[in-house]
Prior knowledge:
This protein is mainly alpha-helical. The chain has helices at about 5-20, 30-170.
Amino acid sequence: MTTQEEQILEGNMLRMKNSGMINHVGSPLVNEDRDEELTRSALAAFRAKEEEIERRKTEVRHKVEAQLGRVGEETKRLAEIREELEALHDPMKKEVAIVHKKIDLINRDLKPLGLSFQKKEKEYKEALEAFNEKNKEKGQLVTKLVELVTESEKLRLKKLEELCKNIDSLR
Length: 171
């Protein structure tokens, strides 16, 4: 409590005494001493309360400042940790981006190659099928040719034998 507040409190107490307020228990003089004693004890109690409040405010202020200091330190530590994480993340991120770009380029190259492969595979299958069919047809023709040649030889031999018989019969 400040001295100005104390003076105001004391002035109010004196005015109460001088205004003629008398306690029903005793005379104005005894009451005056008693009032003065009550005023002093009330003032002392008030001062004690004010000092206690100030002490507690100071304690709280110190605790808050200590907490703020710890919070500041923790904030700095967290910022350092974040920077370390970002530093760890950045090189990997760059490498990943480079590899990802290469994959995209290869994918772009693979798409037309895949289409070309499918087209050529289809052409290959069609050519293989045509080849196999022509080969089968050739086999059938070769078989027929062999049959025809065999038949022709038989007929020629038969004719030759007949001609030989005719020549032999002419003699």
